[in-house]
Design a protein that fits this description.
2 domains, single chain, elongated, Immunoglobulin-like, mainly beta, four-stranded mixed β-sheet
């Protein structure tokens, strides 16, 4: 939990999380509580990385008016003094720090303390073990990302573009033929799957009989 206090404790913003990790294509809630000595006339969320003028002590830019977030942002205030920024269809470019600001008739919240840092990560398939046989390849695969979002996560596995039934964990073991491809996705966000991993081609050998022409034989 982060508490940013400016001047009197009557004006404050407290961020619920210091950092949040989320998957590309999913949604995230970034929350804070705030209070003010006076009546608030305006309030919004912004990102210093996107508000270039903010770094020059000018006004921060309201994310709700940023075209890169169009149709993907909601600001929720279910209870008084608590604001939640909800970003959907997350992109890796959304990785940034997010701040809340407000104004009263005589005061403007301008704390330079950190807000909430969001990291948006894409999925990848990692090969844990692999054994190449003459007719197929056996492999254990893992669907992972650069950070681990909180909560229970269900995965979807795809083999040659088709969903693998009854596989909802981050691990998948199976047999693969040459040319097979495998990818994974977060359940409910199948459109944001990982890059595909392809099964290795079977090895080939060249045999040169001592009393005849050279022949090429593919082991299969």
């Amino acid at each position: 939990m982060i508490q940013s206090v400016y001047g009197s404790y009557c004006n404050r913003v407290i961020y619920t999380d210091r950092s949040i990790c989320a998957f590309r294509g999913s949604s995230v809630d970034i929350s804070c509580t705030y209070s003010s000595y006076g009546s608030i006339t305006s309030k919004f969320w912004f990102s210093p990385e996107r508000s270039h003028q903010w770094q020059n002590s000018s006004q921060p830019e309201n994310l709700s008016e940023d075209s890169q977030y169009a149709g993907r942002i909601q600001v929720l205030e279910i209870e008084r003094g608590r604001s939640t920024l909800r970003i959907s269809d997350l992109r890796e470019s959304d990785s940034a720090q997010y701040h809340f600001t407000f104004k009263t008739q005589w005061f403007e919240w301008r704390s330079s303390l950190p807000g909430t840092t969001l990291t948006v990560t894409a999925l990848q398939v990692q090969v844990i073990t692999i054994t190449v046989h003459q007719s197929c390849t056996e492999a254990e695969l893992k669907c992972l990302s650069s950070c681990s979002p909180a909560g229970r996560i269900s995965y979807i596995w795809f083999k040659n573009g088709q969903k693998v039934m009854n596989e909802e964990t981050s691990l998948y073991s199976g047999q693969f033929n040459p040319g097979d491809n495998v990818s994974c996705a977060l359940k409910g966000h199948e459109d944001c799957s990982s890059p595909s991993v392809y099964a290795p081609k079977l090895p080939s050998v060249s045999v040169s009989p001592s009393d005849g022409p050279k022949q090429h034989i593919l082991i299969s």
